[in-house]
Automatic annotation (TrEMBL):
Its cofactor is Mg(2+). Residues 1-124 form the Nudix hydrolase domain. It catalyses: 8-oxo-dGTP + H2O = 8-oxo-dGMP + diphosphate + H(+). Gene3D superfamilies: Nucleoside Triphosphate Pyrophosphohydrolase. This is 8-oxo-dGTP diphosphatase. Transmembrane segments: none annotated. GO terms for molecular function: hydrolase activity. The keyword Metal-binding applies. Belongs to the Nudix hydrolase family. Keywords: DNA damage, DNA repair, DNA replication, Hydrolase, Magnesium, Metal-binding, Mutator protein. The keyword Protein biosynthesis does not apply. InterPro entries: MutT-like, Nudix_hydrolase, NUDIX_hydrolase-like_dom_sf, NUDIX_hydrolase_dom.
Length: 129
């Protein structure tokens, strides 16, 4: 089975939370959706809430799935879900930096290549929010 990664499109006030990877060296500096690998026995929602707690120190409410299986560079596929913050303020506990991007700023950061089509789909959700 291919590995599964979950990504959170955390939206607040019409902006999307983007996170800059600190590691590994070949990905460091690239921007991504908070998230990570789904562990055996976990649902997408459980993995997303765990990763948001570990990486950002926040509690989230998982919302709607965006798109289907998004292929990534490493043979993994990513499931993307909208999320809203239920508790706390995001802190870069494992990332180098965080930014809240408006729709106009969405492509101002160098996203990991696999995220570019995802961002096009996220854009529609930003418009609605
Ligand atoms: N979280 C996340 N990972 C992404 C995105 N886009 C993308 O290509 N990836 C890739 C980067 C990594 O190779 C992989 C996610 O692995 P990860 O290192 O974040 O997973 P993890 O937190 O579970 O960490 P680890 O236990 O493997 O160290 O998916 C994205 O938007 N969000």
């Amino acid at each position: 089975m291919r590995g599964l990664v979950v990504g959170a499109a955390i939206i607040a006030g019409g902006r999307l939370l983007a996170a800059q990877r600190a590691a590994p060296p070949e990905l460091a500096g690239g921007w991504e959706l908070p998230g990570g690998k789904v562990e055996p026995g976990e649902t997408d929602e459980e993995a997303l809430t765990r990763e948001c707690r570990e990486e950002l120190g926040i509690g989230v409410i998982v919302g709607r799935r965006i798109g289907d299986d998004w292929p990534l560079h490493n043979g993994y596929v990513m499931h993307v879900w909208t999320a809203t913050i239920a508790k706390g303020e995001p802190e870069a506990l494992e990332h180098s930096d965080l930014r809240w991007l408006s729709e106009a700023e969405l492509f101002d950061v160098p996203w990991l290549p696999g995220d570019l089509p995802v961002l096009e789909a996220v854009r529609a959700h930003l418009k609605e929010s």
